[in-house]
Amino acid sequence: MYFLFYFSFKPSLNTVLDLSLYAIQWSKTNFLRVGDQVSVLWVLPDYTDIEMDDNGVMTVPGDCAKSTKEKVDMANTKMKQVKEDFEQLGYEPELYVESGDARGFIPLYADKLNADTVVMGNRGNSGFRKMLLGSVSDHCVHECKCPVLIVRRKGDTES
What is the pTM of this model? Predict the structure, then answer.
């Protein structure tokens, strides 16, 4: 089976990172089997000209703002952690990084990679924000051609 994990990380929202890491950890414990193929997609919000080298390290051109470089450096650290976590369990994850709106990239990559399942966490936006913008997970449930597994922590409820 081929699984695409959507890894959400916004430096200002550590809870998003926690939920993504939780979804990955939950899947490793309850869902993944030996021989499964794993890819991790990371869509960074509104950064431009981000590239990834052969080692999975993200880079930005020198003329980008220092704060953007700091965010990318922090993101590199977290992505390296996720990659190492999968490798310790015997998986060789493929890493993909994009910049922009995750709602467009997740279904695109799920289709492009012929994923059997997309796995993602759920931040649980409040009612008004969700009504105006919709949620990434809700969008993916409707747009992905494969099943979407949304992992929520026990006790988490939507507002």
Answer: 0.74
CATH topology of domain 6-151: Rossmann fold (3.40.50)
Longest dimension (CA), the chain: 44
Spans of all domains in the chain: 6-151
Rg (CA), the chain: 15
| Measured distance CA(42)–CA(14) in Å, rounded | 15
Nearest to 6 by CA among 129, 123, 154, 159: 123
DSSP helix/strand/coil, 139: helix
pLDDT tens for 87-131 read 888 899 998 888 788 889 999 999 999 999 999 887 655 555 455
- Asked if residue 115 lies in contact with residue 145, where contact means CB atoms within 8 angstroms, the answer is no
